[in-house]
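Exercise: predict the structure of this protein bound to pyridoxal-5'-phosphate.
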Amino acid sequence: MSTMTIPVNDLKRYAAESAGSLTECAVEVLRSGHYVLGPWVNAFESTFADYCAVEHCISVANGTDALELALRAAGIVPGDAVVVAANAAMYGTTAVLAIGADPIFADVVEATALLTADTIRQAIGEATKAPRALIVTHLYGRLADMPEIIEVAKTAGMLLIEDCAQAHGAIGVDGRRAGAYGDIATFSFYPTKNLGALGDGGAVTTNDDCIADRVRKLRQYGWSSKYCNALEGGRNSRLDELQAAFLCRLLPDLERRNKRRREIANRYSLEIRNPGIATPPTAGAEYVAHLYVVTAVRRDALRAHLSSSGVGTDVQYPTPDYRQVMHGDRFARVFLPATEILCGQVLTLPCFPEMFDAEIDAVIAACNAWPG
Ligand SMILES: *Cc1c(COP(=O)(O)O)cnc(C)c1O
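Solution:
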């Protein structure tokens, strides 16, 4: 038995790598007297908008608020239907339900775990009302097929929201980054994300002036100016200066860290050779390897084997959104075959930029040693 324990992620290494400059950031914010929505927030918003090549970035408190405020800003109201995937940990569904809107669950394809134009069309065809919006999640850091999906959204008259919480920096074949395809895009800066703060954070990006203006108001009580509550559905969802300063400092590292993630993922895809384990294909810049996820029919046995070999794993994600306990029997008739199969077979292997080469070797060896 191996004595090495390889964590599925290790944020201590992430913070340690930049400890000096992050401490300088913290001291600067501490001395500044500005702690919420100040100069660092402005600087991060304009830098991140430039990075994504969009007009507007509006920071908020987290990625789930970003989704909800995006829907609200777009005018989605109770009773509206919104198409979502059911294999993305309830984030999109939570936002849709918070609005009082109805999720229309679309299946994904097994090979990528992503929505496609076909699965979206099928969900629309079976829905009892025409959906007003679509949330596409670039799951595990892999860009969905946006040109085709944009066409479907256009034809169906749906607003297109990209959930980029796992895909900061992913680049499509046409050179656009995640967040530059949809009418609106949302990001999370939760510490484990590809661009992670040292606390919670999120953002909405868009080229639409009106939607940007509405998100800016909604994140601060619906104020149009101080103490003037102009917009319904407002709340407090602001990014703080400390996190914004950290994000300004960490954004320049994103490309290098994404590259390292992809390098690890591509090594796994080439070197894990076990008939009982299906690996995703090697990939280019359209995949930023937020998570490296394999499938195995005997997933739980593989997980136990890896655990006894000192390899940490996770299951992302085990339960289709429509089967979560909170719904009661509201979605009892929903059954999406590929989503169900994936929930039973997915397994996340350690894949984070600060992994040591010896750890990558050990993960590959442990997978190849599984008798299946
Ligand atoms: C993490 C995540 C979110 C939610 O972000 P929070 O900041 O945790 O609220 C939304 N969508 C996806 C795909 C995520 O991975």
